[in-house]
TrEMBL record:
PANTHER family: CYTOCHROME C OXIDASE ASSEMBLY PROTEIN COX18, MITOCHONDRIAL, OXA1. GO terms for biological process: protein insertion into membrane; protein transport. This is Membrane protein insertase YidC. Keywords: Cell membrane, Chaperone, Membrane, Protein transport, Transmembrane, Transmembrane helix, Transport. Residues 29-60 are annotated as: Disordered.
């Protein structure tokens, strides 16, 4: 088998790698056990009934709000229900346009895209203490929440028990909730505390084979990810629980591609984490949601041991809420600061995280050094080339020898064209006599395939590369090249990609196609007519395929092909010079 066949196998393996992620299902097992459901069903079910029934009452009264003004976010706290339900990110916009709306991560229960955080208490067995609910109006001691000024909200049940929530925020996206029960009555108060993220709509789900969006968490030191569809199907009345488990600490919430809202309980507390879905009573508009059942997804924690406040006693607990951009460096900082296990896994680095994550760390460091992710990609390519240079040198030497054997190989093919087995035997004999291993040129490419895939994953899932500019017309490395040759790069007022995404071919994909064509010219000629035709179409096919991919990936491939071609050309020139020198010595001798 000649080197071209191995090269073809390598190209096909790239497609197989993409197909592997596409066709491999996400791990979406249901871990409920009868014992767990019995332990957790009562408090969780009570919470859900309260939030569902009282939400309708809440719609009759106006919201009362306390503004939030921090370094990275702005929004407001809702004193009706003590909800964190209004938050936008100051430094992220929906598109690269300067007048584009800021990204909103939290919205109130009444909004179309409801997404909010609720914390509170649930009565333990046989306790009838009146508790605050989603319709309760709280009092506050401050007019604004800032990093320098926490807000304390209070609610009195009129029975001698006062409930307090002190909320603070850091300079980024982490809120701290400290909850107190002040018992001035003559009876003990026994309650469970809870915290949950509620989402009252089903987003348009992303390609699950590239990035996970939906319920997520680290439970019992293990990453748990579930799709919206799985949560809906597995949530059965009356408890509306899809998945539940007892754990100590951890975190859980709902993630989007770039944004996360998660509950982080005290890491030394025994809690129950629950994923669930409560369907709306009115499903009349399902036809407008693509047939998807309407309802509210809930992910959160409930304490496993009740908080007991004796008469005259105050009991308290605290937790954190993260709501913002999944910046890897910041997630790592929070992981160390608050001992949150594997918080960086909120970013979906995929099955090959052991490789994808370190590659991102290198790219991020290079980006901080250069101040440009495009330059970081180019520099990373040089590093990869340096690491694989010894293997690449052997590859090109082998290819050079194969190219020199082309006349003899052609002669063997013509002589034994009617006897395939004998032809192969003669080819192997020729390789052995000349000390050529046709498989040696394939190894460096095969070793780089995982790097190519991990780089693609990094470009697709990390917010650090979102809207990251390069030079010229590339204003977002995570998006395809915006130019298109089919409308003469904008001269014709028509966008062919509206017909099909494969009708979008920009300048950088064309550069990539040219570099691939250049590499083919430097490789040994293909003798088989069928293979020759296939390889002639390869640059065109890959140009069309990569035209829809992130521009950063196309720039990486183009630069990689250019360096490979230059490296191959230099090695071939050295081999030719060495061969001429040896021939001259032989003739002279």
């Amino acid at each position: 088998m000649d080197n071209k066949r191995f090269f073809l196998a390598t190209l096909l393996s790239v497609f197989l790698l993409f197909a592997f992620e596409y066709f491999t299902p996400k791990k979406e097992e249901t871990h409920n056990t009868t014992q767990q459901v019995k332990q957790e069903q009562t408090p969780l079910s009570t919470q859900k009934v309260e939030s569902s029934s009282n939400q309708e009452v809440a719609e009759t009264g106006p919201d009362i709000r306390v503004p939030i003004n921090a370094n990275q976010v702005k929004g407001s706290l809702n004193l009706r229900g003590a909800l964190l339900d209004d938050l936008v990110l100051k430094n992220y916009r929906e598109t690269i346009k300067k007048d584009s709306p800021l990204v909103r991560v939290l919205s109130g229960p009444k909004s179309k895209d409801a997404n909010y955080v609720q914390t509170g208490w649930v009565n333990a067995d046989h306790d009838t203490t009146k508790l605050p609910d989603i319709n309760s109006v709280w009092k506050t001691d401050q007019k604004e929440l800032t990093p320098e000024q926490p807000v304390t909200m209070t609610w009195d049940n009129g029975q001698g028990v006062k409930f307090e929530k002190t909320i603070s925020i850091d300079k980024n996206y982490m809120f701290k909730f400290e909850q107190k029960v002040v018992n001035s009555s003559d009876k003990p108060v026994s309650v469970f505390f809870f915290g949950r993220v509620s989402r009252g709509f089903t987003p348009k789900e992303l390609n699950g084979y590239l990035v996970h969006d939906g319920p997520i968490g680290i439970v019992d030191q293990r990453l748990e990810q579930y799709s919206y569809e799985t949560i809906r199907k597995d949530s059965k009345a009356p408890s509306d629980i899809s998945w539940s488990k007892n754990t100590t600490g951890g975190w859980a919430g709902i993630t989007d591609k770039y944004w996360l809202t998660a509950i982080v309980p005290q890491q030394d507390k025994n809690v129950s984490v629950v994923y669930g879905f409560t369907p709306d009573a009115d499903q009349s508009e399902n036809i407008n949601t693509g047939g998807v059942e309407k309802g509210t997804y809930q992910v959160g924690f409930t304490s496993r041991q009740p908080m007991v406040a004796a008469p005259g006693e105050t009991v308290s607990t605290f937790g954190h809420v993260f709501s913002g951009a999944k910046v890897v460096e910041l997630l790592n900082q929070y992981e160390k600061q608050y001992h949150i296990p594997d918080f960086w896994k909120a970013v979906d680095f995929g099955w090959f995280a052991f490789l994808t994550y370190p590659i991102f760390i290198v790219l991020d460091w290079l980006n901080n050094f250069w101040g440009n992710f495009g330059l970081a990609l180019l520099t990373f390519t040089l590093i990869v080339k340096a690491v694989f240079y010894p293997l690449a040198s052997k590859q090109f030497h082998s290819m050079g020898k194969m190219k020199a054997l082309q006349p003899k190989m052609k002669e063997i093919r013509e002589t034994y064209k009617d006897d395939q087995q004998l032809m192969n035997q003669q080819m192997m004999r020729l390789y052995k006599e000349q000390g050529v291993n046709p498989a040696s040129g394939c190894l460096p490419i095969l070793l780089q395939i995982p790097i190519f895939w991990c780089l693609y994953k990094d470009l697709y899932v990390t917010i650090e590369m979102r809207h990251a500019p390069f030079f010229g017309w590339i204003h977002d490395l995570s998006a395809p090249d915006p130019t298109n040759i089919l409308n003469l790069f904008g001269l014709i007022p028509f966008d062919p990609s509206t017909i099909s995404p494969f009708l979008h071919v920009g300048i950088w994909p064309l550069i990539f196609g040219f570099t691939m064509f250049l590499q083919q010219k430097l490789n040994p000629a293909v003798l088989d007519p069928v293979q020759k035709k296939m390889f002639q179409f390869m640059p065109f096919i890959f140009t069309v395929v990569l035209a829809t991919q992130p521009a950063g990936l196309v720039i990486y491939y183009s630069w990689n092909n250019t360096l490979t071609a230059l490296q191959q050309l230099v090695i071939q020139k050295r081999m030719e010079a060495k061969a001429k020198k040896a021939s001259f010595k032989k003739a002279k001798g």
